[in-house]
Amino acid sequence: MSKSGTDVAEEHGIRRSSHWPTVEKHFKQANPFCLACGKDKPQHPADIQVHHRIPFHFCILLGRPDLELDPRNLVGLCETETGPQLPNHHLLLGHLDDFKSYNVEVLDDASVTFAGLSKEDILASAPWIAKKANKPVAWAQMTDDGKKALRKLMDTWYPVS
Question: Is the overall model pTM greater than 0.85, yes or no?
Answer without folding.
Answer: yes
